[in-house]
Design a protein that fits this description.
5-stranded antiparallel β-sheet; 7 strands; about 25% helix; binds nickel (II) ion
Length: about 180
């Protein structure tokens, strides 16, 4: 296993849609193992393959400390219900967090690391984590989904930071996804 470097905004790889995994082989299982290790080292609760520069539809997460590590390959959200809005952060956009509207409950269909299809129901925080990571597979970042005024603030901070200027950061409790 290996800890992989996490790509940071505005790395263009974060904006490219990831490709479907045709065959769940040892290379994919090694990617999953490396992503688990990278996520735990960060530390974070979720990680999508494009965040480590790999354009394949693979994500890993663990919403709560007592949960097992979960890997979803070619995930598809087949059902979304309700609405929730909580702060989110992202390992690829360090130090920022903003409230993001998400579905409250989802059903996701995916392959497991053995290539077996399964369906999983999630709600509340776990549903939020999965939606954030599936967005990464489509080149979408959470700042795309926030209030336009807050998005302007976020982009200004990120621009200042890219120029090497110290920018004030809004202090919000955040999840690292
Ligand atoms: Ni993220």
């Amino acid at each position: 296993m290996a800890i992989l470097p996490i790509r940071i905004y505005p790395d263009p790889v974060l904006r490219e849609p990831a490709a479907v995994v045709d065959l769940v082989d040892d290379a994919v299982r090694k990617l999953v193992a490396d992503m688990f290790e990278t996520m735990q080292d960060a530390p974070g609760v979720g990680l999508a393959a494009p965040q480590v520069g790999v354009q394949r539809r693979v994500l890993v997460y663990r919403a709560f400390d007592d949960d097992p590590l979960r890997a979803l390959i070619n995930p598809e959200i087949t059902k979304s219900e309700g609405e929730q809005t909580e702060n989110e952060g992202c390992l690829s956009i360090p130090g920022l967090a903003y409230p993001v509207p998400r579905a409250e409950r989802i059903v996701v269909r995916a392959l497991d690391p053995n290539g077996e299809p399964f369906e999983h129901e999630a709600e509340e925080y776990e549903a939020r984590v999965i939606q954030h990571e599936v967005d990464h597979l489509n080149g979408i970042l959470y700042i795309d989904r926030i209030d336009p005024e807050l998005r302007r603030e976020a982009k200004r901070i990120l621009r200042e930071r890219a120029l090497g200027n110290a920018a004030p950061q809004p202090q919000r409790e955040q999840s690292r996804l």
